[in-house]
Specification:
heterodimer; A: about 130 residues; alpha+beta; OB fold (Dihydrolipoamide Acetyltransferase, E2P); six-stranded antiparallel beta sheet; three-stranded antiparallel beta sheet; 9 strands; B: about 350 residues; Gyrase A, domain 2; Elongation Factor Tu (Ef-tu), domain 3; 2 domains; six-stranded mixed beta sheet; six-stranded antiparallel β-barrel; 9 helices
Chain lengths: ~130, ~350
């Protein structure tokens, strides 16, 4: 059973969001990294670029396949986790910590209300199984 | 309803992640595909390959039958137990399947073919058999198969054999096989490492697997098997070649025995292709930019386009590598289109890795 921290919000496409003020930190869930297997490459968004909720902004590649990941909220990319360029396995080892991907300064913090909470996300991954 | 090998429960007990492979429920990894890959390059790992298809061809006509069926020539097999890699072709020179044939004695050959192609292969084998009255074909679904691979594989695997049986296995030469008791042991594999492929009666599989576990051999999944074979520059049927591609454009020209008098299915078509001039070549690619090469990506060269047939990440090299079919004569640097960007890649000779060492 994969780990779904209760303080985070989620997309059904397996991104997690940690909200602190108007900054959203984004990564992919433990369940997603388990499905993908060993990650070998991450293509991150450009810092300072503007993204809209639902945009494909990062690609994570495991040995087996490439997967798009989507921006959960609208805003500007203010920081990316450059450590992932050389150590993409951080996403496998610590998906909710060292494996974070990027931070968005949100235009509209109310967008967070459209995201899944931990219970709803857990339910959505159980349905997939 | 998917098929299970005799080791299915052993995989579940080892927390394997199971996937469908050609109708079989098989382990893709037991936690980390990359760790399993490194283990085979540095020590020893084992793969359940019981899903593969084993066919025994016996009788006075077995030799003539296989000489007509196969594009490599079993006449090269002078010593009992010797193995040969070959393709079987259709009339157009396309590859029906690739296989290993073991010469057991003059009227007994054992053929190991792919599992994904089992039904069409069996139909093809039977169809070609009609002209040979003294031939018997028997599918051996009563045997299981475990591949033990890696620099320490032989040493570790030898411990499972009883004292009286160990010597013939220990002295086995490369690409040779021997029967010991109910086991059939070949010094062959699909990883570029030394090791054995061990066939045994289905009801012996669990104890053999356990014996290897006790000898310190760790289970490895089909995921690692794929990156290992790609690093070793070994083709995967259905991906790198199929019924529409000849061995000449699939990096398999070395398996063709064209020069002698012998006729075989597809020989005429191959000769015609050679006479016209072979238009494409199979090469290795190493990605110079960041990213991962994938199957079917377009390769752009200064003499036309090509295509990646198998692309992945090489855990040994820490880079992305691929097999690609590109126009003949191209060397040096090419570009690969990934997500609308052109990334640089070097054309290299295969294999990429041999016995744990980088070749590039």
């Amino acid at each position: 059973m994969s780990n779904v921290p209760s303080e985070l919000k989620f997309l059904s496409s397996h991104e997690w969001v940690l909200v602190e003020g108007d900054v959203a930190t984004v990564g992919v869930s433990d369940h997603a990294q388990e499905l993908l297997g060993d990650l070998v490459f991450v293509e991150l968004p450009e810092p300072e670029s503007s993204v809209s909720a639902g945009d494909s902004v990062a690609v994570i590649e495991s040995v087996k396949a490439a997967s798009d990941t989507y921006a959960p909220v609208t805003g500007k990319i203010i920081e990316v986790n450059v450590e992932l360029e050389d150590s993409p396995e951080r996403i496998n080892d610590d998906p909710y910590g060292d494996g974070w991907m990027y931070k968005i300064k949100m235009e509209d913090p109310d967008e967070v209300n459209d995201l899944l909470d931990a219970d709803a996300y857990t339910e959505s991954i159980e349905e997939d199984d | 309803m998917s098929k299970n090998t005799p080791l299915h429960q052993a995989h579940l007990d080892a927390s394997a992640k199971m996937v469908d492979f050609a109708g079989w429920d098989m382990p893709i990894h037991y936690g980390s595909q990359i760790s399993e890959h490194h283990l085979v390059r540095s020590d020893a790992g084992m793969f359940d390959v019981s899903h593969m298809t084993v066919v025994d061809a016996t009788g006075d006509d077995a030799r003539a039958y296989l000489q007509n069926l196969l594009s490599n020539d079993i006449a090269k097999l002078k010593t009992q137990g010797k193995a040969l890699y070959s393709c079987m072709l259709n009339d157009n020179g396309g590859v029906v399947d690739d296989l290993i044939v073991y010469f057991i004695h003059d009227s007994f050959y054992r053929v190991i073919i792919n599992s994904a192609t089992r039904d069409k292969d069996i139909a093809w084998l039977n169809r070609q058999a009609s002209a040979y009255p003294n031939l018997s074909l028997r599918e051996r679904d009563d045997v299981a198969m475990i591949a033990v691979q890696g620099p320490a594989a032989r040493e570790r695997a030898l411990t499972i054999f009883a004292d009286g049986q160990r010597a013939p296995v220990e002295s086995l030469g490369r690409f040779m096989a021997v029967e010991v008791g109910e086991y059939f042991v070949g010094r062959t594999g699909y990883t570029g490492e030394d090791g054995f492929e061990i066939l045994m009666p289905v009801d012996e599989a669990v104890s053999c697997w356990q014996g290897l576990l006790d000898a310190g051999v760790k289970p490895c999944g089909l995921g690692a098997r794929d990156t290992l074979r790609l690093e070793a520059g070994m083709n995967l049927y259905g991906t790198d070649m199929d019924e529409t591609t000849s061995p000449l454009i699939s990096g398999l020209g070395w398996t063709l025995a064209m020069s002698d008098e012998r006729n075989f299915i597809g020989k005429q078509a191959l000769q015609a292709e050679l006479d016209r001039g072979v238009q494409q070549q199979m090469v290795g690619l190493v990605l110079l930019d960041k990213g991962v090469l994938r199957n079917h990506l377009k390769v752009v060269t200064n003499d036309g386009e090509g295509e990646i047939t198998s692309g992945s990440f090489s855990p040994t090299l820490g880079k992305s590598i691929a097999l690609a079919r590109i126009p003949a004569g191209i060397t040096g640097e090419v570009e690969v289109e990934i997500r609308n960007k052109l990334l640089k890649a070097d054309v290299v000779k295969i294999p990429f890795v041999k016995q744990g060492k980088s070749c590039i």
